Amino acid sequence: MIQTMIVKLTKDVNVEEIKKADMGPYYAIRDTAVYPADSTGNPWTASYVSSTGDPIADLYNDMAAEKKAKAVYENLLKLTDDALLKDALRFLLEREIVHFKRFGEALRSVEEYNQSKRIY
């Protein structure tokens, strides 16, 4: 969604505005195309998605990722004064909060299951 926001914000931008925003190197390689990358230009890679096979470790990892995403949205909100963009970012931020809570609930369920007595 963030990449879509960037495309929408830059679709009618002229080259002079791109230069002024110090986005010349990005434009030279990609024009205004969507290119999933972090703020320093590192491309998205599947290595960002990790799984250990241990549901407790994976749920903690998922919860940490949600907290990191929330922090990114909070920082992005500070970087714009566009009201519509802020609304979209607030929605995404709230979604991260809900995801964090749901992963926490799942973690409690797994921990309760692991601590329960099983009779076979």
Automatic annotation (TrEMBL):
Q: Which residues form a coiled coil?
A: none
Q: Which Pfam families match?
A: Mn_catalase (PF05067)
GO molecular function, one example? Answer: metal ion binding
Q: Does the keyword Cytoplasm apply?
A: no
Q: Which residues bind Mn(2+) 2?
A: 66
Q: Does the keyword Manganese apply?
A: yes
Residues bound to Mn(2+) 1: 99
Q: Which InterPro entries match?
A: Ferritin-like, Ferritin-like_SF, Mn_catalase
Q: Which cofactor does it need?
A: Mn(2+)
Keywords from the UniProt entry? Manganese, Metal-binding
The record describes how the cofactor is bound as:
Binds 2 manganese ions per subunit.
Family in the record:
Belongs to the manganese catalase family.
Mind telling me what this protein is named?
A: Manganese catalase family protein
- Protein species of origin: Crassaminicella thermophila
Q: What lineage is on file?
A: Bacteria, Bacillati, Bacillota, Clostridia, Eubacteriales
